[in-house]
Structure formats: C-alpha cells, structure tokens
Amino acid sequence: MSEPSGDCKNKRPRPRKPDQAQDVACRNRATWNHGPTPDRSSHMNRISVLLVLLAVATACTSGEAVPEEIDITGNWQLLSGSVDGAAIPLIEGSPVTFNITGTELGGTSACNSYGGRFVLDGASISIGDLMSTLMMCAPEVMVVEVPYMAALREVDTVAFDGDELVLTGPEIELRYSPVG
Length: 180
Fold this sequence. Notes:
Blueprint: H1 21-34, H2 40-62, E1 74-83, E2 86-87, E3 97-101, E4 104-108, E5 113-121, E6 124-132, H3 139-154, E7 157-161, E8 164-169, E9 172-178
Antiparallel strand pairs: 1-2, 1-3, 1-9, 3-4, 4-5, 5-6, 7-8, 8-9
C-alpha cells in the first residue's frame, strides 16, 4: 500500500468543515489507500459472534447422535411374535418369512405369499399396502397367518438384538433370525 504523500502524511482526519478541503482530500486518500480503520470494539464484536457460532455448532453436534440407517436387507424367518400380549403360534413345516431387497419386502405367512413396499428412516419403518395370494390352508395354519399379517401392517420400528431382527409397534413384536 502506498503512504499518503506530502502534506497528508502526518494529518489525522478531522470533522468535515467546508474550509478544510485539504483534510477531506487526505481522509479520502487514506481511506482509498489503507481502508477504514476499524475500532477495537468492532473486532471484539466479530470475535464474540464467531465464538457464539462455534458454541452453537458444537452444541448441535455433541448432543444425541443422528440415527444411522439400519440395513435390514436379507432373508429372515420368524422366531417369535406377539400381538396385544398374545403369542403368534408357529407351526413346523409352515414357516413365516420376511425377505428384504431394496425397498421391497416379501415372504410367506405360513400359508400364503405376500409382498409390498416399505420406507425406512433411521429406525422407523412404514410398510405400505401388502398384497397376498389367497390360498386357503388348514385352520391351524390360518391361525398363524391372520395375526402375523395384521401385526406386519402395524409395525413402526426396526432394531437388532444381536443378529436377530426385531420389528415392533403398538403392542406388537416380531422377532426374526437370519436365513442362510
């Protein structure tokens, strides 16, 4: 930056008066060459604002962790289930399965095959409309299918307990083990 020349070198800007044209010229030249001289309180205000922003950013990131996306992709078999405190009976030879690929789900509900779509957001799951085949099976197998399908439509949370997948909702728990 260049120094003020000649008679402006040692002059300080003074309040503007019509007869002080030389002071105005020096002030304008000093502003042009060196920029305005910020006062100390302006620097302190900027530092204070930066410290507050830093504190806010730290507080926002040091609270509860944002839930990670849970990967439930795979093939699962129902180990146990309950609806309103009543266990869903399981029958040997008529498995209940839950298979996930992308945002599509499907499986068998002891008798019929079913399928549909779901949305997973962190640990929250929302299962859309489910389609199902309409075979009639033995009454003891249908006793499994009816409460299972009703429960599956109402689940809203996904979690893992070890390697078991657990879907829960109001008064509902469906617990699956991985298959193959």
